[in-house]
Amino acid sequence: MKIILNENVDKLGSSGEIVEVKDGFARNYLLPRGLAALATKSAIKAYNEQQKLAEKKEAASLVNAQKLAEKLSKTSITATVTVGEDDKIFGSITNQNIADLLAEKGFEVDRHNITIPEAIKALGTYTVQIKVYKNVKADVKLWVIK
Q1: Per-residue pLDDT at 82
Q2: Strand 76-80 to strand 36-38: parallel, antiparallel, or no bridges (unpaired)?
Q3: How far is the C-alpha of 26 from the C-alpha of 28, rounded, in Å?
Q4: From the CA atom positions of the chain, what is the Rg in Å?
Q5: What is the tens place of the pLDDT at every residue in 16-54?
Q6: Which fold has domain 67-145?
Q7: Edge-to-edge strands of the sheet including 136-145?
Q8: Domain limits of the chain?
Q9: Is 53 exposed, middle or buried (0-12, 13-18, 19+ CB in 10 A)?
Q10: Beta-strand (E) ranges in 11-75?
């Protein structure tokens, strides 16, 4: 029996694939749980249309992400901190601090998408990498001052 998988199924395939399975497995396990649908001509046609729409959305999202990355790359942020002897910072600059500084500039960035190459514990200039989309990243210049 040919079916279209609605979700990823271990050892069978990923969402959207058309696979051949035994009738009993499809009737008793996959179909009742909503993991798959019968691969009729109309279902295959609907699936192909849905894939085309998903590809268009993906392309539009990629273009928007590249524009955002370009804007972020042109942005520099400044963190004002209190320092002790030898210009060492009390604590360090974290992902959350950088996300807050970017929010002040008008960019909403999740702190989990920010990568700091090394711990920021001194004054100076640093480059912080921000993951905007799957393969789209932007480098933001961070100034740490007194």
Answers
A1: 86
A2: unpaired
A3: 6
A4: 24
A5: 888 999 999 999 999 999 999 998 888 888 888 888 998
A6: Ribosomal Protein L9; domain 2 (3.10.430)
A7: 76-80, 136-145, 124-133, 114-115
A8: 2-65, 67-145
A9: exposed
A10: 18-20, 36-38
Place of tokens 């002897």: 85
pLDDT of residue 30: 92
Question: Residue 48: in which H helix or E strand, if any?
Answer: helix 41-73
Q: Indicate the pTM of the whole model.
A: 0.66
pLDDT digits (tens, 9 = 90+) for 115-134: 888 888 888 899 999 998 88
CATH number of 2-65: 3.40.5.10
Rounded to an integer, what distance in angstroms lies between the CA atom of residue 142 and that of residue 128? Answer: 7
Give the CA angle between residues 23, 36, 58 to the nearest 5°.
150
Q: pLDDT band for position 136 (50/70/90)?
A: confident
